[in-house]
Amino acid sequence: MRILHIVTGLASGGAERQLQLLLRHLPPHQHCEVLALTNPGAVAAALRAEGVTVHHLGMRGNRDVGALPRLARRVRAGRYDLVHTHLYRAGLYGRLAARLAGVRAVVATEHSLHPGVIEGRPVTRGVKGLYLAGERLGTTTVAVSRQVAQTLHAWGVPPARVELIPNGIDAARYRRPPADRAATRARVRAELGLPQGGRVIGGIGRLVPGKRFHVLLEALAGLDGAARLVLVGEGPERSALERRAAGLGVRDRLVLTGERDDVPDLLTALDVLAAPSTEETFGLGVLEGLAAGLPVRHSACPALDELPPGAAPQARRIPSEAAAYTAALRQLCGLGAPGPDPLPRPAAVGHYDIVRVAAELGALYDRLARGRAGRTPADAGPPAGRPS
Fold this sequence. Notes:
The protein is of the alpha/beta class. The protein has helices at residues 14-25, 42-49, 67-78, 88-100, 125-135, 146-155, 178-192, 214-221, 238-248, 263-268, 284-291, 302-305, 322-334, 347-351, 354-372, and strands at 2-7, 31-36, 54-56, 82-86, 105-110, 117-118, 121-122, 140-143, 162-164, 200-204, 228-232, 254-258, 272-275, 296-298, 315-317. The strands form 3 sheets. Strands 3-2-1-4-5-8-9 form a 7-stranded parallel beta sheet, sandwiched between helices. The chain has a 6-stranded parallel beta sheet with strand order 12-11-10-13-14-15, sandwiched between helices. A two-stranded antiparallel ribbon has the order 6-7. Helix 2 links the parallel strand 2 (31-36) and strand 3. Helix 1 (14-25) crosses helix 15. The longest helix has 19 residues, at 354-372. The chain starts with a strand and ends in a 16-residue tail after the last helix. Residues 373-388 have low confidence and may be disordered.
């Protein structure tokens, strides 16, 4: 089976990294290629290094409609059995191009959708209208959490067109022998200029307003001077966070790592993971912290909300306020925990293991390829014929 994944860009974001992870674990009979509409960044390079064919369309912006025929020609030339789109722009252009090229099985994953916000931007009437028009051109929309599925249903997407397949984490990458973990922890702390015996708090994610990392800066200012904060990620809020840290007098206690491919290693250097975002559609960083054996304090994690309370006992939800994080982090440090030894791996980590998630997605591909052979989706209209 030949599959083309169409994504808006391939910078180092959550959806892009999730795509890279999925491609490593899909069934071997499903041969995947990737096409970026624009910005073939760090993830494109990583995919190519892993042997994945990556195409770049060179789209110049959301209104570059001239890119559509080029995209349709690329899809037609590849003779793909299935097209899978990721993110808003790719979902709109990719679904339409797939239909024009005659591909009958078209999947889109909705990675970041809230009732009034999509991918961090407000949902206007026009944005919603275009989204729904594009959705009808596809076969199935994959929701990464029940919250996303409920929002799609509220928008009018029929439940029969929505599949709930969560994001996944490569749980095996976070499991390591005690001696190896201890050595990695010492090495990473030395590399980042962190005290070997001090308490280190961490956050993971793009440096954007929605992640609310300023809350952690304010909490840091209320903690003992030996505490440090490490933020793993890059984004447009970097300068603002640096200025805020300087204003709070904690700039010398803040470490910004930028984009990194060694997140499991970085997590060994932490004592606790903090996630003050209130706009999560899944909460991948929280799951990564749990996989690394860290206690986690978070303000939104739909992935955990969908599991029984005992699935992640070391994760606690608290308000996204500096006072709440200051109190929670002070309590953890005051109890003498956390520390260099990881906590037991909770059931939530196994539930979201990428091996299980990729198998579920691969099964969906197989069902759609079988079910769409020789016919078109009833609600999408007839596609253009595929050349022989």
